[in-house]
């Protein structure tokens, strides 16, 4: 309980102190930084620093070099905890998040989404999904990767759930490679719907090799989503076995 209170208070103070700086950076660069690249890197720096400062966990990143610099990818990751959003900054990649529209209503977090020009989707709304795919395709054409959780929500048991089709439809639309990322450990620290932090865990992030659409072996987004889920399930098992 004491550790959890410390982490929440530390995170809150950290965010409150840096938020005005973020607003100033955004405001000063607004006329020039049309793609909000600078504010994205500022948020990556903030998140990376915060994730390293909190002494509740250790983070290990493997395979970061598998993403070729300057190449846009459709980055997909499994989703165990709200902490995944924080620790993904340790990859230090240039990307735009795909976020559910409800997050826009969250104070500070929603403002950051707007400032960084991240992309939202209203789940269950077909028009919103189509708009998300078009905006994502536009970002990829400009050399900006897209980052999303294809499960669409956090796993309640730290296992990988079924994938939605958006990332795979986007790959066929744009002929861009999919970059799978496995994260493990965050669900043990702060599970879905949990508020108390469990210390002593190691967060492992593993970037797999990118897969180009020419190597998919299928033109069916549903079959493709199943293939990538199987790949990531196998890799998660290997990580847990220490391989």
Task: Briefly characterize the structure.
With about 240 residues, the protein is of the alpha/beta class.
List the helices and strands and how they pair.
Elements: H1 2-29, H2 37-53, E1 57-62, E2 74-77, H3 83-87, E3 95-100, H4 109-115, E4 119-121, H5 126-141, E5 145-148, H6 166-174, E6 178-184, H7 186-189, E7 201-207, H8 221-241
Parallel strand pairs: 1-7, 2-5, 2-6, 3-4, 3-5
Antiparallel strand pairs: 6-7
Salient structural properties:
243 residues; alpha/beta; Glycerol-3-phosphate (1)-acyltransferase; 8 helices; single chain; seven-stranded mixed beta sheet
CATH class: Alpha Beta
Main sheet attributes: strand count, strand direction, barrel closure: 7 strands, mixed
What is the number of helices? 8
**Strand elements, count:** 7
Structure, explained:
By secondary structure, this protein is an alpha/beta fold. It has a single domain (2-241), classed as Glycerol-3-phosphate (1)-acyltransferase, CATH 3.40.1130.10. The protein is 44% helix and 15% strand. It is built from 8 helices and 7 strands; from the N terminus they run ααββαβαβαβαβαβα. A 7-stranded mixed beta sheet has the order 1-7-6-2-5-3-4, with helices on both faces. Helix 1 (2-29) runs antiparallel to helix 2 (37-53) and helix 5 packs across helix 6. The relative contact order is 0.17.
């Amino acid at each position: 309980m004491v550790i959890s209170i410390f982490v929440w208070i530390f995170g809150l103070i950290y965010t409150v102190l840096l938020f005005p700086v973020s607003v100033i950076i955004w405001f000063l660069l607004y006329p020039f930084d049309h793609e909000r690249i600078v504010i994205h890197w500022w948020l990556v720096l903030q998140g990376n620093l915060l994730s390293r400062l909190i002494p509740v966990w250790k983070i290990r990143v493997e395979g970061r070099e598998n993403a070729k610099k300057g190449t846009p990818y459709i980055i997909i990751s499994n989703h165990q905890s709200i902490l995944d959003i924080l620790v993904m900054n340790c990859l230090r990649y240039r990307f735009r998040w795909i976020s559910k529209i409800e997050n826009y209503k969250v104070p500070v977090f929603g403002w950051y989404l707007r400032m960084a020009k991240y992309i939202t989707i209203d789940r269950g709304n077909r028009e919103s999904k189509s708009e998300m795919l078009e905006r994502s395709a536009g970002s990829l054409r400009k050399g900006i990767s897209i980052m999303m959780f294809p499960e669409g929500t956090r796993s309640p048991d730290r296992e990988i759930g079924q994938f939605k089709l958006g990332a795979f439809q986007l790959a066929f639309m744009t002929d861009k490679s999919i970059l799978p990322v496995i994260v493990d450990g965050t669900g043990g620290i702060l599970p879905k719907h949990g508020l108390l932090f469990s210390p002593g865990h190691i967060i492992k992030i593993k970037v797999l090799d990118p897969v180009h659409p020419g190597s998919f072996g299928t033109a069916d987004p549903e079959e493709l989503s199943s293939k990538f889920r199987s790949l990531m399930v196998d890799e998660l098992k290997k990580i847990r076995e220490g391989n």
